[in-house]
Amino acid sequence: MGRGLTRQELLIAGAGAYATLLFGGCGGSGGGSQELAFWNGFTGGDAPTMLSIIDAFKKKNPETGVKMVSVRWEDYYQKMPAAVQAGKGPDVGIMHADQISMSAAHRVLRPLDDFAQQLGFQESDFAPDVWRAGVYQGKRYGIPLDMHPLGLFYNKAVLKKAGLEEKAPTDRESFEAALEELKGKGIQGNWVPPFVFTGGFMFQSLLWQYGGDLTNEDGTKATWNSDAGVQAMEYLRGMIQKGYSPNNVAQDADNIAFKNGQSAFIWQGAWGIGDYSSTDGLEWGLGPLPKIGDERAAWSNSHQFVVPEGLSDRKLEGARDFIDFVTNSPSWAESGMIPARKSARETEAFKKLPAAGLAAEIPYVRFPRPVAGISDVRESTLDIAISEGLSGRKPVRQALDEAAKRADELLSDNHQKFAV
Predict the structure, then answer these.
(1) Calpha distance 335→161 (Å, rounded)
(2) pLDDT (tens digit, 9 = 90+) per residue, 333-373?
(3) Are residues 329 and 180 located together in one domain of the fold?
(4) Helix and strand tally (H, E) in the chain?
């Protein structure tokens, strides 16, 4: 199943991977030692960070080698199922939370309830929603590595020039007051693109803030066309109509404008930390999303460890030890991600990193329900409605209603296809 790429992935899609290898067989073993083939899509600045964690693991576990195989996410999700079915897949891999359900439905992944039990993992060791995001039809298939939620980044130089405090507004009143002040200085403070990056993530966050959800509980019916959904879309459309954002913002133009000092704020995923940290001359800060609706909520995704079917007991033991080690490492936060495991977040090392600026969102990050095919459905329905509604091509409610009607048919088909 396809999935919307993160902006970081889009930026690096054409770049060569750091330590990238061609897909091959699982790592071999010999002489009392073994080598785990670890597959992922970490091909940007996150690759060196993961490699350093692997080196630390090898020093503590010299009998277990780890070969990291990194390719672009879109290639990874296309090739991994066939590789596993051919017996040439990884020993341990990474998947985004919204991809796990489809791979589990296709029986590519091994349930990891025993891993969680053997490691003593429970919901209280992680953020509740990210822990539940790895479960499909009552079985655990993912062990969370991180969360990368949407946060509010701010350009310090732009705010200073406008005479505003160099901090992230926390609620609707302070956010709109800042945007109005910026508008008075000739600055469109927060650009809203009619694409999943980042308008779609903004919409989902506001949908949850207004008390709505993407689907019903069993994922058979779209519910984003509720009153909460209309409120969320109308709010974003209102930002454009009030002049806080240009109309018809091009894909990634909001990110470019933020880095160039043309805007003050951007609702951006945690991956923006790496992008903005490497942008010369950019002075930026980061805070949780402002509370616009009745409750706090922020869209998020998560990298989760997965294990394919068919591994030997010895490989399973090595994979379990590796997952335990990496999830407990605060070093992964150096890539801009928030560690999912509480023990890693509570270290002083994590608290000193920029990602700690999003720690306040952990109790209320939200994920799509673990429903097989839900990302494909969203891409072919809701993403189109967001484009239509935010660009003004269709009235907001009409766009959401039409998308929900199409989605209901697809969700129903998937439910029947993948029912236990």
Answers:
(1) 30
(2) 999 999 999 999 999 999 999 999 999 999 999 998 899 99
(3) no
(4) 18, 14
Residue 284 half-sphere exposure toward CB, CA atoms < 13 A: 31
CB 36 within 8 A of CB 66: yes
Q: Are residues 410 and 268 in the same domain?
A: yes
| Residue 373 forms part of a structural domain | no
Look at residue 1 and tell me if it is in a domain: no
SS (HEC) of 36-89: EEEEECCCCCHHHHHHHHHHHHHHHCCCEEEEEEECCHHHHHHHHHHHHHCCCC
- Shared-domain flag, residues 30 and 126: yes
The CATH number assigned to the domain holding 222 equals 3.40.190.10
d(C-alpha 89, C-alpha 311), whole Å: 10
Q: What is the pTM of this model?
A: 0.90
Number of domains making up the chain:
2
Domain encompassing residue 394? 150-300+381-418
Residues 119 and 186 in one domain: no
Quick check: 220 and 411 in contact, CB under 8 A? yes
Residue 401: CB atoms within 10 Å: 18
Number of Cβ within 10 Å of residue 102's Cβ equals: 26
Q: Render pLDDT for 221-252 as a digit per residue (tens, 0 to 9).
A: 999 999 999 999 999 999 999 999 999 999 99
DSSP class of residue 289 equals P
Residue 16 lies in a domain: yes
Could you tell me if 227 and 315 lie in one domain? no
Average pLDDT, the chain: 91
Asked if residue 410 and residue 338 are part of one domain, the reply reads: no
d(CA 18, CA 105): 31
Whole-number Å distance between alpha carbons of 225 and 275: 34
Q: Measure Cα distances from 319 to 37, 115, 385, 394 in Å.
A: 9, 9, 42, 50
Strand ranges for 288-374 from DSSP E: 298-301, 303-306, 338-339, 365-366
Q: Does 374 map to a domain?
A: no
As a whole number of angstroms, the distance between CA 290 and CA 151 comes to: 9
Question: Can you name the residues that pair with 208 across neighbouring β-strands?
Answer: none
- What whole-number distance in Å separates Cα of residue 148 and Cα of residue 137? 24
Angstrom distances, CA of residue 275 to CA of 48, 193, 250, 271, 304: 15, 19, 19, 7, 22
